[in-house]
Predict the 3D structure of the following.
Amino acid sequence: MQPVFRLVLEGLAMFAGSWAAGCVPLYVRMDQAKFSLLALFGAGLLVGAALGVIMPEGVETLTRALQARGGDWVDSANTIISWALVGGFCTMFLVDNALPSGHHHHHHAHGRDETPDNDSAACLDEIPMSPRTTAAVGGAPMTGSEFTLGNHHQPQGAARHPHRRASFDSAISPSADHLHSQWPSDQRPPHQGACRRVLGKLGSALSPRHMPTTLLGILVHSCADGLALGAAVAGSAAQSGDQTSSLEIIVFLALLLHKAPAAFGLVTTLKQQGHPGYRLGVWLTIFAASAPLAALLTFAGFSAAAASPAPAAAHGEAHVQPWAGIVMIYSAGTFLYVAMAHTLAEAVAHAKSLRARAAAGLAAAKPAVARLGIIDMAVLLLGVVLPPLVSKDHDD
C-alpha cells in the first residue's frame, strides 16, 4: 500500500480513537485508575519508540548511506546525527513554548464568591489525564474513584445565584437565538430555524472570544504530535518503500495510546469549566482532527523536499537514504521531547496523585507522600520495552 494511503488510514484511526475517548466524560462513568494505567502505558511506548526503534533505525539508515558515498561522509556521521536529534528536540521546544498556549494562572482569594474563569486551567501540563476530584456545583464533593459530569453544565457560582444562572443560560448561544427570532413563525422556511440554530452554535464554538486557552495550548501540542508522526512515516517510507515497517507501526500505536487520555483529560477539564455540550463536541472534533492533518502536511512537505532536486539514477539510493535517516533521527528528537516534557511527567504525576489520595483519604488535611505503585511501574516499563521487542520480532 502506498505510504500516503497508510497515513490516511492511520489518521482516521487516530481521529476515531481520540473522539471516542473524548466522549467518555460526556456519557460514561469511568474509574480513574484505568485511564491512569493507560496513560502510563502510552508514555512508556513513546519513550521506547524514540530510544529503542526510531533512533537506532535512523542511525543505521544514515550510516549505510554515508558508507556508500565513502570519503569524508563517514567522518561527518556523528555531526549529522547529533544535529538532527537536537534539531528535533529544539523544534518541539519552540513549538511548545514560543507560540501562545495559555501558560498562565488565575488565582482567586479564599472566601470570595466568584465564578471561575473559563480559561483558568493551564495548558499542556495541567490538563489531567483523567477527571479532577474537585467539588461539584454547589459544593458537593465528587468521589475519588469515579466521576460524573452532569452537574458541571454551568459555572460554580451560577447554582448559588439564579440571576447569574439565567444570564449564563441566555448567553450560551445568543447568535443562534437572534437569528432564529428574525423569521416570523408563519414565514420561516421548513427546517430553516433548526439549520440556523446549528450554524449559530457552530459559529459560537469557533469564535475566538469563546475559545479557551486550554484548548489552544493542547492543539499546539497535538499538531506537534502529528509533525512527529508525519516525519517518522516519511523516513520509514523512504527506507522501506510501500512496505509497512515496524517503525511506522510502533509510532502509530504509541501516538494512538497517547491521544486517547489526552482527549479524555481535555473534555473533562472543559466540562468542569462550565462550557456547554455543543461547544465541547466541536472542540473535541477539532482536537481529534489536528494531529492527523498535521501528519499529512508534514509527510507532504518531506516528500516534496525529497523529490527535488532529482538526482541521477545511479545516485538515487545514496540521495534518498541519508535523507531518510536524518528524518528518522529528527523525529526521534521530537518524540523525546513529547515523551519527557509532557506525556511521561503528566502520567507519573497523575498516578502519584491518585495513590496519595487513596492512601490519605479525601478528607485528610495533609496528603501522604506520593509514589508509584508496583503495577504502575510495571505497566510503564512494559510500554518502554515493548517497542524494541516488537521491532526485533517484526524485522526477523
Residues 101-186, 310-320 have pLDDT under 50 and may be disordered. The chain has one domain: 3-104+214-395. The radius of gyration is 24 Å. The chain is about 70% helix and 0% strand.
